[in-house]
Give the backbone structure.
Amino acid sequence: MIGTMHESHDVCALLLAGGQGRRMGGQDKGLLNLGRYPLVVHARERIRPQVTEILLSANRNHDLYRGWGFSVIADEEEYLGTGPLAGLYAGLAHATSSLVLTLPCDTPFFPDTLLHRLFQALSTRDAEIVFPVSGGHSHQAFLLCRTHLKDSLKKYLDSGQHQVLGWVQSHR
């Protein structure tokens, strides 16, 4: 069925848990429990049937995440502390799929149709990057992009820029 959790794409889901948790008193958001499981486990289970690969971008607590069965990647040393684009760069470097979908670890209840809708937009618009917009607000934390953009992202980060929207707007 189209738009259901039964549909799968050749996409790497990249769960972003690399932040410093400043707004949460320094806590690792991905490991905060919702019910009996950490937030990141809820997000993983929701996206798992829709993708072929799942990576977790984290810069601390690697052993705890691995204990929950995650393949953990860290930001490159030169980009540590520069935000979600550093995690995306690491994901683009490690993904075996031609597309990467970023998902924040602390938003486990994204729509079941998110990947399907982003995939459709990417395909029908001949785009390189897509993200959802609702109510006039863009949500670049949920980003679907082509892995060939890795070199472009490296140049952007090396120039000292770290704004997600700034990099996104430089592509189709």
Notes: Residues 11-168 form a domain with the Spore Coat Polysaccharide Biosynthesis Protein SpsA; Chain A fold (CATH 3.90.550.10). Residues 14 and 49 are 14 Å apart (CA to CA). Helices lie at 39-47, 62-67, 84-94, 114-124, 150-158, 164-168.
